[in-house]
Every structure is written in structure tokens, then in C-alpha cells.
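Chapter summary example.
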Amino acid sequence: MTTVLISAGDVSGDHHAAGLVRVLRARHRDWRVLGLAGREMRAAGVERVADQADLAVGGLLEIAGSLGRLLHAWRAMDDAIERAQPDLVVLVDSGGFNIPLARRVRRRSRARVLYYVAPQIWAWRRGRIRKLARRVDRMALIFPFEADVYAGTGLRVDFVGHPLVDELAELARRLDGPAARKQLGLPAAGRVVTLLPGSRRNEIDCQLPVQLETARQLHAMEPEVQFVLAVADSIEAEQVRRHLAAAALPAALRLHVHSGRAREAMLAADVSLAKPGTVTTELMLLDRPMVVMGRAHPLTAALLRRFLRVPWLAMPNLIAGQAIVPERMQQEARPDVLAKALYDLFAGPVRDAQLAALAQARGRLGPGGAAESVARIAEEMLGRD
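The structure predicted for these 385 residues follows.
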């Protein structure tokens, strides 16, 4: 029996991996698939070795409080490599966890290693590129600019396109902005801003207070605007409640909190305030304007500034090769600055220019079919048709 071990360390990785698993299981019902899995991978039929929620933390210094959970997930995956002896290991994003895991695979099994959704080592810590090339047999890249990063390493890379292209095109066909507003209990008329603070616990602590204060200041500028706070499934409600209580927003400010409804919240919005990451690609594919902000522990931010090798963090900017969406990081992510940037995107030439640039960048993500392409690569690596 063919055995595939998959490691997806965050919510977006769990989502992309689940799409791949559905294709593989439809074509090879006798294959065993197990791994580091979240809710979507388990729903797709993956045997859970470790829980993706244990890795729901990001940053450098921020992981200290989650070391116990991280070690538990590591030991579980290490044991699975030894016991299951997989034929293929598929690593999905999460380079901090998966690059060391690739080394363990090399040492403890004969499995081929496929990396789907490359870690963003092109942004910083470029010294890991050759290390990755030694530990991985093949890479399936989702951004067109990534291929040049691995030139000269001998690593075989394939640009498969972004896995969200098909999915979000289908969503946009069946759900438009007015329908999304109706589902979320929002009025059909009036301006709506969606707050997207992230899917990791430390991101909520860093981003949400700033986003809530931004909402307060934007409300003062435009009292009729309504806000949607999109909370990821990986975040506990109590953590969000604490921040809402601390913010003490005015009673007249209408804030709708929804868990697990991020895409409906994006479609419902005139403009969104988002942290860097996959969510910025989702907004671009859904043709929704955005402002991108980020806060991290000061020491983490200082280290990132020292090693960062790209001029932007928002994916639309990296794909376009220019700043097409506003980015405000650390001290620049001030609520007054963010509120003004959001206000400017409600209507007029600033909004029109961003939408046109997003449409052009969107075309660079490929025609779709990423999961099917990666499934074919997996079959080639295993010598299967």
C-alpha cells in the first residue's frame, strides 16, 4: 500500500493540502494518507498524527510560549516517519518546521520529498535555499517569481499556479458582495470594512488591538461605516473577547464578529485591513481593495529588518513587482495612518488604480488546476500513473 505523509503547519497550508488530498484520494482510493493535519485535512480523510493547531503561532521570539505544543507535534511526526515508512512526504509551507523535518525524512526513511507551497526563504534567510535543495527532491511553486530563486541549485521546480485561483473564481461566481452581506447580516447599502488580524494566536495579540483602534478612528471620520471582524477557526473566542473588552469601542460603532466566515467577510467589504500573508492573495483574487499592516515583537521585527531581502511583504506587491497596495509595518502601522488609507479606498481614483493593478497582478498566478498538477507530480515521483 502506498503511504503519503503530509505536513501542513498553518491554516492556509491545511487548506491547500486538503485540496491535494481530495484529488489523490479520488484517483487512488487505496493510498494511506496521514500527517500533521488541521480541520480541513481531517475532513478530506487524512489520519491525524499531530494537530495543526499546535503550530498556530508565528514569529521568532513569539514561539517561546508554544514550545511544548511544537515539540509534541515534532515528536509525533518524527515517530510517524519511523513507524509508517512513507513512500512520499509532502511538505506544505511552514519552513521553520518543515525544513528540519525534511532532514529527518532523509535520515530515517527512503521517502521521496515534495515541497508544495515553498517556504518564503526568498524573503529572508536565503542561506537555507541550498539546504532545502539538499533535502527535497522536487518543489511545486505557486508564485511565478519563485523559480529564479532556485536556479543553479539542481533542485527540480515546477510552477503549478496558485491553488486558490480555481476555488475563489468559483466562489465569486456563486456569491457576490450583496449576497455575502446578506449572509453576514449586514445592510445592503453603506460602507463596510473587514478586519483580518490573522490565524495565529500571537498575530491576534499583535494585530487586533491596532485594527480595533483603527476602526475607532475610521468611525470618527465616517460614522456610518460598519465593520466585520473575521476570526479564524484556529483562534479561541475568549482571546478575541479579551481584546474587544480592552478596546472599549463606542456603542455607536457597529462591529460584527464572525468566526470561520473570512471569505464572505472579504466579499462583503468595500475595503479590508489585513496582515501580510495568504489573505492578501485571497483579497486580490476576489477583486477587493486592501490596506496591509503588520506588528510583531520589537526584537522579532529588528531581526527581520536585518535579514529581509525583499522590499515588500504583501503578496500583491511582490507579484506585481511594485507597491500596488499600501503596506504599513511596525511603527508605521499607526491607527490614524491606517484609517486614512482605508478611507481613501472607499471611492475615487485611488480605489480605481488599486483595482486595475490587482487585476493585472492576478493574471500572473496561472490558469488554475494547481492541485491536479501537484497530484500528477506526486504520481510521477512514485512511479504511478
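To summarize the output: The chain has two domains: 3-163+369-382, 166-365.
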